[in-house]
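Table S2 (text version). Query chain:
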Amino acid sequence: MTFVVGLTGGIGSGKSAATLEFEKLGVTVVDADVVARQVVEPGTNALARIVAYFGEEVLRPDGELDRSALRNAVFDNDQHKTWLNQLLHPAIRTLMQQQIIHAPGPYCILAVPLLIENNLTGMCQRVVVVDCPESMQLSRAIKRDGSDERIIKNIIKSQASREQRLSAADDVIDNSGSIDQLASQVTHLHHQYLTLSQAS
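Corresponding structure-token output:
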């Protein structure tokens, strides 16, 4: 069985930067955001069901899912949102599990923004949290997304608190410094995970 390290962190904490460092070391990363796009690619059962439920207007002319149209369709409609989550969450979980099984190497990273909120820690042998102060999350996310401060603050509020994440963590990557400091922490954890995966 593949040894799975769940990686999470709040918006703007630098999860992508951390997973990139693991990938540079040859570690397979199963990324929930990527999987979420794969389960609704043209030709998938999930996309067919979404179109049957919401209509053709959630498709782009090229047959791909129009994410903003779908977001608008579920916005402020709890019934639609629940239906969509009940369809997508199991599909995403199943595909993540398949990718974990086929991941080469002694361990893999399961990168999930809402790992703790969606109770997915049971899929992992270890949980690593990418952490930085909230003020840094805010400024990074605003710079990256060009969103206004209020939207980012609401996203931070809707996620697990920094304390909740840290209390669920086996390991913490402090991403309040330079990319070199991030890389050296990842390398240190990589050696630790190689040892743990061999022992499991």
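Notes on Table S2: The chain has nine helices and five strands. The chain has a mean pLDDT of 94.
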